[in-house]
Write a structure and sequence with these properties.
The chain is an alpha+beta fold. It is built from 3 helices and 4 strands. It is globular. The structure holds the ligand C[C@H](O)[C@H](O)[C@H]1CNC2=NC(N)=NC(=O)C2=N1. The site of the ligand C[C@H](O)[C@H](O)[C@H]1CNC2=NC(N)=NC(=O)C2=N1 has 6 residues, from loops. It comes from Chroococcidiopsis thermalis (strain PCC 7203).
Length: about 100
C-alpha cells in the first residue's frame, strides 16, 4: 500500500465511501457510540488487533461508551490509503454500523 498522502480528490472519493467519517484538523475522524463500556472496549480490542496486523495505529480516546478515533499516517505527515483502510475496518467491526 502506498505511503504517500492522498490528494484532495482521492480523499473526497474515500470519504464518500466511509460512513460517519469526516476530516478534522487534517485527520480522518469519527466518534462511535456503543450500548455500554464493555461493547466500546470490545470494539477497541478487535480494532487494536487489526491495527497491529497492519502495522498502523489509531489515535483514539474512550469515555464510557464512546470511542473517538483520529487517523493519520505519522510517517507521511498526513492521511494515506492506510488510514482509509483502517477506517473501513473500524466501520466493519462496529456493531450495527
Ligand atoms: C515501524 C512502524 O511500522 C511505523 O512506526 C508505523 C507504526 N504505526 C503507525 N501508525 C500510524 N498511524 N502512522 C504511522 O506512521 C505508523 N508507523
Amino acid at each position: 500500500m502506498s505511503n504517500s498522502q492522498l490528494s484532495e480528490a482521492e480523499l473526497k472519493k474515500a470519504l464518500g465511501e466511509l460512513s460517519g467519517w469526516s476530516i478534522e484538523a487534517g485527520k480522518l475522524h469519527r466518534q462511535y457510540q456503543f450500548k455500554s463500556f464493555v461493547e466500546a472496549f470490545g470494539f477497541m480490542s478487535s480494532l487494536a488487533l487489526v491495527a497491529e496486523s497492519m502495522g498502523h495505529h489509531p489515535e483514539w480516546f474512550n469515555v464510557y461508551n464512546r470511542v473517538t478515533i483520529d487517523l493519520t499516517t505519522h510517517d507521511a505527515g498526513g492521511i494515506t490509503a492506510k488510514d482509509v483502510e483502517l477506517a473501513r475496518k473500524a466501520n466493519q467491526l462496529a456493531p450495527s454500523k
